[in-house]
Automatic annotation (TrEMBL):
This is Histone-arginine methyltransferase METTL23. Interacts with HSPA5, HSP90B1, TUBULIN, UGGT1 and UGGT2. Interacts with TET3. Interacts with STPG4. GO terms for biological process: chromatin organization; methylation; regulation of gene expression. Belongs to the methyltransferase superfamily. METTL23 family. Its main location: cytoplasm. The gene is Mettl23. It comes from Pardalotus punctatus (spotted pardalote). Keywords: Chromatin regulator, Cytoplasm, Developmental protein, Methyltransferase, Nucleus, S-adenosyl-L-methionine, Transferase. Pfam families: Methyltransf_16 (PF10294). The keyword Transferase applies.
Amino acid sequence: VLDSQYGMYVWPCAVVLAQYLWAHRRSLPGKRVLEIGAGVSLPGVVAARCGAQVILSDSEELPRCLQSCRSSCLMNHLPHVPVLGLTWGRVSLELLALAPIDIILGSDVFFDPKDFEDILTTIYFLLEKNPHAQFWTTYQVRSADWSIEALLYKWKLKSVHIPLHSFGADKEHLASSPLPGRHTIEMMIISLVQSDGT
């Protein structure tokens, strides 16, 4: 989805995650939601419009991405949604100060394998504050050897695959965003492996 007026490109993964949020909109009011690597922040905006208390974040080293978050909030009449600079893998004062989060959102954050562990250390830190929280993430399959299984095991995290057809996101033209056939989008929910062995 390209917004020509503002020159913002919304990646297909964000559209799929936004669709999942919309399908679960009745569970969102009052939930504390943090979107990481938000950029244009379509999923976070949808969550906020559905009644969640949303915080948007992107790398503190990417001021243009943080500006995109702010612009999206203004365009969608959400002037009070906070935008934080959070860099994956870095325990910052902003991260430490966050109240417990219920749902973490991340669309296409598993892009570069060198970032995978930094992402999961940040997710682990957030889940430790609220062991019932979940990380809802969509990603594009870019390589056959793409895997975070070993990292999930290392950080005592588990993942559940969410089939796209289960929330109507397997259509060719979802929200007028062409999901090119050769780009496989997947969704998973990551949570803590609970100490009771589940």
